[in-house]
Amino acid sequence: NLTQSAVSKQVAQLEELVQHLLFQRVRRRLQLTPAGALYLAEVRKILTQIEMSTHFLRSYGGETEVLRVSTPSTFGARWL
pLDDT above 90 covers what percent of the chain? Predict the structure, then answer.
C-alpha cells in the first residue's frame, strides 16, 4: 500500500538509475516507452528465474544456511 506520490518518486528514481524514461505521461495515464517495454521484458525474465529458483530451493533437502538479503521494500514485499 503505497501512496501515488511514493510510487511516482520510485518510478522517477528508477528512470534516473537506468537513464531512460520508462513511461510516457499523458493526461494522468502512463504508457510504456519503447525503453520501458524492453526493460519490462528483461525484468520479467529475471523475476521468472527468481521464482524458479525459489521453487527449486523449496524442494531442496540439503543442509540449511543463513542467507541475509537487503532489498528495496517494493521488491521485498513481492518476493521475500
Answer: 57
The whole domain housing 17 covers: 4-79
Structural domains counted in the chain: 1
The pTM of this model reads: 0.68
CATH number of the domain encompassing residue 44: 1.10.10
Q: What digits encode the pLDDT tens for the residues 43-53?
A: 999 999 999 99
The three-state DSSP-derived secondary structure of the chain is CCCHHHHHHHHHHHHHHHCCCCEEEECCEEEECHHHHHHHHHHHHHHHHHHHHHHHHHHCCCCCCCCCCCCCHHHHHHHC
